[in-house]
Amino acid sequence: MRPSAFGVALWASACVALSFLLLPIVAIFSELTLGELRAGLTSEVARDALRVTLETNLVAMALIVFFGTPTAYLLASREFRGRSLLVTLVELPLVLPPAVAGIGLLAAFGRLGLLGGTMESLGLDIAFTKTAVVLAVTFVASPFYVRTAIAAFEGIDRDLVAASRTLGAGPARTFFRVALPLAFGGLGAGAALAFARGLGEFGATIMFAGSLQGVTQTLSLAIYQEFDVDFDSALAIGALLVVGSALVLFAAKVIPAWTRSTSTSTTLFAPSGSR
Amino acid sequence: MDTLHVDLDHALRSFRLSLALDVAAETVAVVGPSGAGKTSVLRAIAGLLRPERGRVALGDETWLDTEARVDLPPERRRVGLVFQEYALFPHLTVRANVAFGGRDRVDELLERFGIAGLAGARPGAISGGERQRVALARALARDPGVLLLDEPLSALDAHTRRRVRGELRDVLGELGLPTLIVTHDFEDATSLADRVGVLVDGRLLQVGSPSELVAAPADAFVAGFTGANLLRGVASASSNGLTEVALDAGFTAYSVDEARGRVALAVYPWEVSVAREAADDSAVNHLRAPIASIVTLGNRARVRIGPVTAEVTTQSAERLGLHEGEVVVASFKATGARLLSVE
User: Fold this and answer.
1) What is the pLDDT of residue B181?
2) Do A166 and B122 touch (CB under 8 A)?
3) How far A188 CA sits from the closest chain B CA (Å)?
4) Are strands B285-297 and B300-305 parallel, antiparallel or unpaired?
5) CA gyration radius for chain A?
6) Which residue of B has its CA nearest to A269?
7) Tens-digit pLDDT profile for residues A64-95
8) What are the chain A neighbours of B86 within 8 Å (beta carbons)?
9) Residue A124: pLDDT band with limits 50, 70, 90
10) In chain A, what residues touch B46 (CB-CB under 8 Å)?
11) Average pLDDT, chain B
12) HEC profile of chain B
């Protein structure tokens, strides 16, 4: 069959778009020899940055999941006035420029900020510490988790929740035994997305936490510091982040599919609950 | 066994649900068209819907009393609710689903419902009939004082449905619990329930045994729901002491019931006989018309003649050599023609 002109046009556009998206990633790897990659990744800057990134992101993810899951369940399962306004507020950091997030965090937690006096009297100075990195990552990454988690909880067939209640389970037991397991795939996907966003956090972190090697300098910040000093080192760190992000994205796609296949149901239950 | 008292008043989308019903150790079916508020009744009893005004009690245990501000949450009402689509937990095995309601009688219930062999299976991997038994076992595992079934047979295909209906009737009989079933199918209702209530637009039009509903339907809707032919027309007095009805379909029929003005004449298909010529028997109503269709249901044949459907044995249909398009006479007695007012 002869391909139609329209089909050719679709493929041509897709080729241009994909080439453009892939070119920088290919360039990172093709500009590096294996030796340079090894040297770049074993440098002190890179090792410190990797440690800081993992420490801060794991703490941030714990905070996001611990506070985000109940928040998402509340917003997904209760009807109350102002609910949609709250959902919008939760999503606000998604569209907020990172620089605004940074200045906002400084204005709130900085020495001269809104809570600065309280913090100081408690002997806490958050700005330009590891805690600041955690807060910046939590702020920008949490909407990715909460949004997906709301959709996952909303995707649960309401009859299943009702059935749990009529079988003698109170709201808490229903949450842990029914809602949480059924939303698990969606929650995992949301956590992976939030983690990917957190790994790449740059703008809010550099404003609120600075870029002190070994303290607040994450991988993204290290790339920025290294690229006019040692380009190859910056490339090597870049390569590490590409691999890390790709793995997380893969996990975000695989986890919900895996849950779906083990929990077939005739009901309207949708584990990933994308909206 | 305690009696379930239900008294509800609640605004639904386009009408008010307003109903009072007592269910002793018996099976009561609330039957009505979809959207009549049937499921809301069950949800209100189970505590999943809070009516504007009402009272729900099992014996002297009050579950809901809006005036006394009593409203127990679902988990504190001793109900076993079987959902229309069963609502089995997809992430749990059959055994874990049943154990969710209560751990004490799991093995006994799995055994009793013949699902012990499926204990390790997930709900997605078992058939519709099996799911229904799991749902029933799960509902009974918490040892309920009332059993509520929402359209228990509608999720099943026609073949399974007939078998499950028989099984369900036996189980309900053995349990002896106050049981409330809602269904849109009059046949399901009559085969499962001791008493049937017809719910339309949130109101119970009539409650009675299946035979009472068929024998004396309160109005045209109940008559139609129980399967009667409904022929609309205008009633007037006749010189022979009967009521003469000029049917809209162009025929004249007679009834022993007294009525004047617009009426619906109800006659059950099994009270209509079919012949080639009007027989000289006790029937006074004869409608001559071509056969529009013949549908065979096992040993019965439903023959559509003009505006009426007659139900005859397949044997009779064959003996008469009935075929579509042939002009025949449908006859029924004036005593079998009930006149119901039409609003």
Assistant:
1) 95
2) no
3) 16
4) antiparallel
5) 22
6) B90
7) 999 999 999 999 998 889 999 999 999 898 88
8) 266
9) confident
10) 162, 166
11) 90
12) CCCEEEEEEEECCCCEEEEEEEECCCEEEEECCCCCCHHHHHHHHHCCCCCCEEEEEECCEEEEECCCCEECCHHHCCEEEECCCCCCCCCCCHHHHHHHHCCCCHHHHHHHCCCHHHCCCCHHHCCHHHHHHHHHHHHHHCCCCEEEEECCCCCCCHHHHHHHHHHHHHHHHHHCCCEEEEECCHHHHHHHCCEEEEEECCEEEEEECHHHHHHCCCCHHHHHHCCCEEEEEEEEECCCCCEEEEECCCCEEEECCCCCEEEEEEECHHHCEEECCCCCCCCCEEEEEEEEEEEEECCEEEEEECCEEEEEEHHHHHHHCCCCCCEEEEEECHHHCEEEECC
What phi-psi label fits residue B202: left (phi over 0), alpha (psi between -120 and 50 degrees) or beta?
left
**Residue B15 forms contact with A (CB below 8 Å):** no
Q: Residue A153 burial by CB count (10 A; 0-12/13-18/19+): exposed, middle or buried?
A: buried
Q: What structural domains and CATH numbers belong to chain B?
A: 4-78+144-220 (3.40.50.300), 230-341 (2.40.50.100)
Chain B residues touching residue A177 (CB < 8 angstroms) = 100
- For B9-46, how does the pLDDT look when each residue is reduced to its tens digit (9 = 90+)? 999 888 999 999 999 999 999 998 888 889 999 999 99
The whole-number pLDDT of residue A269 equals 34
Give backbone dihedrals phi and psi of B337, rounded to 5 degrees, phi first. -100, 110
> In this structure, are residues B101 and B140 in contact, taking their beta carbons and an 8 Å threshold?
yes
Q: What is the pLDDT of residues B97-147, one digit of tens each?
A: 999 999 899 999 999 999 999 999 999 999 988 999 999 999 999 999 999
CB contact under 8 A, B48 and A162: yes
CA B339/CA A139 separation, integer angstroms: 74
Determine, for residues B87 and A267 on separate chains, whether the beta-carbon distance falls below 8 Å: yes
Q: Are A237 and A222 in contact (CB under 8 A)?
A: yes
ipTM: 0.79
In the numeric block, the tokens 């689903």 are attached to B97
Q: Which CATH number fits domain A13-262: 3.20.20.70, 1.10.3720.10, 3.30.360.10, 2.60.40.420?
A: 1.10.3720.10
Q: Is B103 on the interface with A (CB under 8 A)?
A: no
